Write a sequence for this structure.
C-alpha cells in the first residue's frame, strides 16, 4: 500500500507509523485521515503486528490539528462528514485490538491531541505541548475530544482545557493523566520502541481483551462490565497462550506467546 503522507516501518512485531507532513506540522487533512484509516485497518488484521507506534515527522510536532485550510472552507454538511470520518478513524485506533502507543514528539493540538487520546498509551517528549485550541478558531473539538478528554482527565480539567484553548506542557499533562510518561525529547523514540517491544512480547489475545474490557466496559454499567470481563476471562482461558503463560511460570522460564 502506498501513502503520500504516512511512513511505515516494521521493527519486528512493532509497526512504526509516522504522519509525514512536516511543512504543516503534520496537520491532518482529509487525505491523511483516509490514509490513516486504510493503514490502521491493514495493521489491525496483520497478525505479524502486535503493537503500533504512532508519531509525527520532524522535531517540532506530533500533529498540530486538523488542517485549518480545509476547516476554513467547510460547510455544515462537509463539516459534519469530516467530524464523523475523524471520529471513525479514532475509534478504529482506540479499538484496534492491539496497543497503539503515541510518541508525542512536539505539538499535539486540536485533532492531534484527540488522535493521541485515542491511542492506548501516550509517551511525551518533555518539550511536547498538548491542548485543544479549537475555541480560538470559533470551533470545538470534532473528533470526540470533548468525550475522550473528560474521560481521561475528568470533567473539570476537560472544561478548562477546551474552554480556554491554552496548551499545557508535558509535565502538566503527566500530572493530570493526559499522558502516561514523559521522557527527554532525545530519548522519546528509543523509550517508545522499548515499551512497544515489551508489549509485543505479551500474549496478543489477552492484550486484545484487556483493551476491549476497559474500552467497552467503561461505557457499561459496572455490573454488566464485570460480567463482560468474566466472559473475556473465560475466553482467554481457552487459549494456547494461557496454557503457555501458566506453564512457563511453573517451569520458571520465559513464556513464548504465539497469539493462539
Ligand atoms: N493546519 C494547517 N496548517 C497548519 C496547522 C494546521 N492545524 N498548524 C500549523 N500549520 C502550518 C502553518 O500555517 C505554517 O505554514 P506556513 O509555513 O505555510 O506559514 C506551518 O504549519 C508552520 O507553522 P507556524 O509557522 O505557525 O509554526 P509556529 O512554530 O510559529 O507555531 C503552532 C506552531 C503554535 C502549532 C501554530 O502553528 C498553530 O497554532 N497551529 C494551529 C494549531 C491549531 O489551532 N490546531 C487545531 C486545529 S482545529 C482542529 O484540530 C479541529 C479538529 C476537529 C475537526 C473536526 C472536523 C470538522
Amino acid at each position: 500500500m502506498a501513502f503520500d503522507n504516512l511512513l511505515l516501518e516494521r521493527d519486528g512485531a512493532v509497526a512504526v507509523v509516522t504522519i509525514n507532513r512536516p511543512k504543516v506540522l503534520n496537520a491532518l487533512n482529509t487525505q491523511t485521515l483516509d490514509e490513516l484509516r486504510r493503514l490502521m485497518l491493514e495493521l489491525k488484521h496483520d497478525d505479524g503486528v502486535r503493537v503500533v507506534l504512532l508519531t509525527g515527522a520532524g522535531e517540532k510536532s506530533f500533529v498540530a490539528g486538523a488542517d485549518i485550510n480545509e476547516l476554513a472552507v467547510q460547510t455544515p454538511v462537509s463539516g459534519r462528514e469530516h467530524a464523523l470520518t475523524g471520529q471513525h478513524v479514532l475509534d478504529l485506533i482506540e479499538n484496534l485490538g492491539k496497543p497503539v502507543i503515541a510518541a508525542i514528539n512536539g505539538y499535539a493540538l486540536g485533532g492531534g491531541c484527540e488522535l493521541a487520546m485515542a491511542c492506548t498509551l501516550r509517551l511525551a517528549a518533555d518539550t511536547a505541548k498538548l491542548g485543544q485550541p479549537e475555541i480560538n478558531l470559533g470551533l470545538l473539538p470534532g473528533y470526540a475530544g470533548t468525550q475522550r478528554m473528560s474521560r481521561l482527565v475528568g470533567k473539570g480539567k476537560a472544561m478548562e482545557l477546551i474552554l480556554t484553548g491554552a496548551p499545557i506542557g508535558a509535565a502538566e499533562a503527566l500530572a493530570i493523566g493526559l499522558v502516561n510518561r514523559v521522557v527527554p525529547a532525545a530519548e522519546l523514540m528509543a523509550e517508545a520502541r522499548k515499551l512497544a517491544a515489551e508489549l509485543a512480547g505479551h500474549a496478543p489475545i489477552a492484550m486484545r481483551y484487556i483493551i476491549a474490557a476497559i474500552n467497552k466496559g467503561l461505557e457499561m454499567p459496572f455490573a454488566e462490565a464485570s460480567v463482560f470481563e468474566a466472559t473475556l476471562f473465560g475466553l482467554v482461558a481457552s487459549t494456547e497462550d494461557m496454557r503457555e503463560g501458566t506453564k512457563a511460570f511453573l517451569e520458571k522460564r520465559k513464556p513464548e506467546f504465539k497469539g493462539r
Summary: The longest helix spans residues 76-94. The radius of gyration is 19 Å. The chain has eleven helices and ten strands.
